[in-house]
């Protein structure tokens, strides 16, 4: 059963309104109706949102609410809501609050007893997951990867044994460094999907073992451009089976005398194996 009611005009409401992540055709009719009928649109970037609104012939006033002023401006918006105005919250693209501002506003609204109504709509993590071919029965959205290598490696170590699909957002400037760090920690066999420019002209959704994906991205600079999400297959206990017990024992003995990196390289040479997989196993299993 559907309910076409868009604006319950008697109650001031904060609407959470997703906007397209590339293809303007992905806005919903309900989003257009809400954006047209509210008193104010709170937007991450009022110029950016102004263009979207004018594309759809919407003349509603905008109000800037971004990461740097949200905590302080949220109270202004709550006061307007309590005074009887209805407000729509949008971000530059996709669903507000998903790696975007809005958390403080929604929290303060709920604390003040203001009604919060979410609209479903575009979101890069869900769009990417739905076509990735990776298990989607359980997944973990991890937001943006840390900007520094140490932070990224720590993050990959944290998720190395997580059995759910993990999804990250990444910027094109860091994609090569991030893939290198991922390779070092998760090894070349882990299946990874790069979902790029979703809903746009150059949409690409490419999945392969991480070692191959790194080479593919390095060899084609187009794959280093645009907006992108990385999806990592969850850990499978069989991932470790390829390392024989004798190899693990050798690595453990060498690690008592040598740094892990060196010990992994020597063990790899002795048994003619890939050092990354041994290094990763050592990181996860040896002190
Ligand atoms: N709120 C948005 C959402 O619902 O997905 C995410 C906003 S976050 C600031 C922007 C990041 O989302 C981009 O850097 C990229 O990692 C991811 N993203 C956004 N649009 C995308 C697209 N069309 N294709 C792939 N990733 C996208």
Could you please describe the fold and organization of this structure?
- With 287 residues, the protein is of the alpha/beta class.
- It has three domains: 4-118, Tetrapyrrole methylase, N-terminal domain (Cobalt-precorrin-4 Transmethylase, domain 1), CATH 3.40.1010; 124-232, Tetrapyrrole methylase, C-terminal domain (Methyltransferase, Cobalt-precorrin-4 Transmethylase, Domain 2); 241-285.
- Helices cover 41% and strands 17% of the residues.
- It has helices spanning 29-37, 46-55, 70-82, 103-111, 124-132, 149-159, 175-186, 210-219, 245-257, 260-271, 275-285, and strands spanning 13-16, 40-43, 61-64, 87-90, 115-118, 139-144, 165-170, 191-196, 204-209, 228-232.
- The chain has a five-stranded parallel β-sheet, sandwiched between helices.
- Strand 6 (139-144), helix 6 (149-159) and strand 7 (165-170) form a beta-alpha-beta unit.
- The protein is elongated and about 75 Å long.
- The protein starts with 12 loop residues before the first strand and ends with a helix.
- Bound molecules: S-adenosylmethionine.
- S-adenosylmethionine binds at residues 21-22, 91, 93-95, 98-100, 123-125, 169-171, 195-200, 227-229.
- S-adenosylmethionine binds next to helix 5, strand 7, strand 8 and strand 10.
């Amino acid at each position: 059963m559907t309910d076409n009611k868009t604006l319950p005009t008697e109650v001031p409401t904060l609407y959470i309104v997703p906007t397209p992540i590339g293809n303007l055709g992905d806005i919903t009719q309900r989003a257009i109706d809400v954006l047209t009928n509210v008193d104010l649109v709170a937007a991450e970037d009022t110029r950016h949102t102004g263009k979207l609104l004018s594309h759809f012939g919407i003349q509603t006033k905008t109000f800037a609410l971004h990461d740097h002023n949200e905590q302080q401006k949220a109270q202004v918006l709550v006061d307007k809501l309590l005074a009887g105005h209805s407000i729509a919250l949008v971000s530059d693209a996709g669903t507000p609050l998903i790696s975007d501002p809005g958390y403080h506003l929604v929290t303060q609204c709920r604390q003040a007893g203001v009604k919060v109504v979410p609209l479903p709509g575009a979101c890069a993590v869900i769009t990417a997951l739905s076509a990735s071919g990776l298990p989607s029965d359980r997944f973990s959205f991890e937001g943006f990867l840390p900007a520094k290598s140490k932070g990224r490696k720590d993050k990959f170590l944290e998720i190395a044994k997580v059995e759910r699909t993990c999804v990250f957002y990444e910027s094109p400037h860091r994609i090569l460094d991030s893939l290198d760090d991922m390779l070092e920690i998760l090894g070349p066999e882990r299946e990874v999907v790069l979902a790029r420019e979703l809903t746009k002209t150059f949409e690409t959704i490419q999945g392969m073992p991480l070692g191959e994906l790194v080479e593919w991205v390095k060899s084609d600079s187009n794959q280093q451009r645009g907006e992108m999400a990385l999806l990592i297959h969850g850990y499978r206990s069989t991932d470790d089976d390829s390392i024989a017990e004798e190899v693990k024992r050798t690595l453990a003995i060498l690690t008592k005398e040598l740094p892990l990196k060196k010990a992994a390289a020597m063990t790899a040479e002795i048994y003619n194996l890939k050092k990354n997989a041994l290094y990763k196993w050592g990181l996860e299993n040896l002190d």
